[in-house]
Amino acid sequence: MFLNIIEGISAFAIPLVLLFIPLYAYYKKIKVYEVFVEGAKEGFNVAVKIMPFLVAILVSVGIFRASGALNYITTMLAPITRFIGMPPETIPMAFMMPLSGSGAIGVMTDLLTTYGPDSFIGLVTSSMMGSTETTFYILALYFGSVGIKNGRHTLPAALAGNVAGILGAVLISNLVFR
Amino acid sequence: MINVVWLFLIVVGVGVAMINSIISGDLEPLKEITASAFNMSKTSIEIAIGLIGLMMLWLGLMKLAEESGLISILAKMLKPIMTRLFPDVPADHPAMGAMIMNIAANMLGLGNAATPLGLKAMMELQKLNKNQESATNAMATFLALNASSVTIIPSTVIGIRVATGSADPARVIGTILFATTCSTIVAITLAKLLGRMKRYKVDSSPQTEQQNR
Question: Which 115-144 residues of chain B touch chain A by CB within 8 A?
Answer without folding.
Answer: 115, 118-119, 122-123, 125-126, 132-135, 139-140, 143-144
